[in-house]
Amino acid sequence: MSSVSTTAPRFAQRFMQVADWLEAEGASLYADRIRGILADSEGLTTYTAAFCGLFSAGKSSLVGALAGQSLRTGANPTTAEVEAVEVEVEGGTLRLLDTPGIDSTDERHREATMNALYQADLVAVVTDYQHVEADANLELLQMFAASEKPLLLIVHQVDKHLEAELPFAAFADSVRQLAADYGVEESCVFFTSVRPSAHSQLDELRAYLVAKAEGALGTDGEPMIRRLIEVAREGVSACYESELARRAKAVEELGGRAPQSLDEAREWLWDARRRADAFAQEEMERREAQKALVETRKDGWLRTVDLAQIAPYETAEKGRRYIDSLRADFKVGVFRSAKKTEAEREARLKAFVADLAQKVENFLVRPLSAEMAQQIREIGLHAAAEERLIQRCQGLGVRVDEAFVQACVKPGSLVSAEYGHQFVRDVQDRVRREMRAQVQGVVEELAAAVEERLRMEEQDGAAERDRAERWCHVLRSYVECGERFESALAAVTQGEVPSGE
Ligand SMILES: Nc1nc2c(ncn2[C@@H]2O[C@H](COP(=O)(O)OP(=O)(O)O)[C@@H](O)[C@H]2O)c(=O)[nH]1
Ligand SMILES: [Mg+2]
Hints:
Layout: H1 8-13, H2 15-24, H3 28-39, E1 46-53, H4 59-67, E2 83-89, E3 92-98, H5 107-117, E4 122-128, H6 135-145, E5 151-156, H7 168-181, E6 189-191, H8 202-217, H9 222-255, H10 262-307, H11 313-326, H12 338-379, H13 383-394, H14 402-406, H15 419-460, H16 462-493
Helix pairs in contact: 2-3, 2-9, 3-9, 4-8, 9-16, 10-12, 10-15, 10-16, 11-12, 11-15, 12-13, 13-15
Bound molecules: guanosine-5'-diphosphate and magnesium ion.
Magnesium ion binds at residues 59-60, 73, 77, 98.
């Protein structure tokens, strides 16, 4: 952080609003702590070192010795108060907090100690010579190692050391090793005693604290601002903790594992969205491909209808001969009797009809019906729908009989010599038109069957899609909460009130 020099008091005041916000969010403990820091009129010019540890570690004696004063010492203190002694340093005051001690048997003392620590710029864990590795001490180290505050490990009452049992250097090494395990540097480990001892670093510790205080106070107000920010951040964390945990649990319930970080959750969400989108895309593409296939088949079948050779030359010739027989001047036989003429017309009509019907059957109906049935099978519809359609294909056909052909004759055109050709084209057109209409009918039923199959497939995929959507939802909900948390943290770090939800 850059020097806040003259702006420090004003900047600090902004935390009043942050405190109000925390209060409104239900984190009144942190709101009170901020107000407590702000209420300290000396706050901006005070550097605070808190001494904590088990009872009788010698904290009070040590603090007194550091300050050159005598503090209330002795076993079993009845008060749970935090005592402060102050030492003048350049640029302000070094305040030493003597805490009542962490005693697992008295929750009030533990609480008073923990409550005092938010005011501290530095924490010193004090242990007596004989209890360096006591569980409570290790717990304390563990807890403060996680915070941002500088952390000291002080092994007190080293006058109790007996060189005959263990060389002091070896003892000191093992302590430094332990400290390193908790991220405490060698320069932050001190050995002290208020009784005469060759190993005591009481003066070094005092010099260290004074230098630390003067260094921090030289930046004018920074220690206090740091404390304010730290408490505000803790308060924000407290506000979001349970909600974020709840949402992480929802993610874990669905995905088997809770995200380890917001970034990981963002990655999961990104992935989930991509997969859900791909799923929807696939579905749409399948739908479009199926529709395109039906269109392609329809075009192919209609082309088959149009190109079928249903009236090759000899068939067309029979048609033209029939038309010739209808002309007014058509007469046959020596006597050109009406009966014979009529019989000839009848014969020519029958010959044309029989030939045409056979050609239509052989070159149009049968090949088309086979082609359609084959291609419909290839689509892979549900059995019942496929069966229905195949039957429909097998039932395709045009009833080419005398009436069909006669209906195509335009009597008014009989005078034209060329009409025979036109007539044969008209007959073919009528055959193709009727076939086209039947093909169209099959295509409509096919399209409906394809649609039905798609719908059922999509229904089958619905459970999977639902799951994917739920997964996206819980991830989004976690990420949103995490982002609000992050931006609230960023806001209070700037002394700003986090913006609304
Ligand atoms: N031998 C020895 N005893 C000490 C030392 N410092 C404190 N004591 C004794 O340890 C006991 C507890 O000291 P006190 O300062 O009250 O510990 P606190 O409970 O941590 O505050 C008292 O009887 C002190 O006289 C020391 O450096 N050497
Ligand atoms: Mg004490």
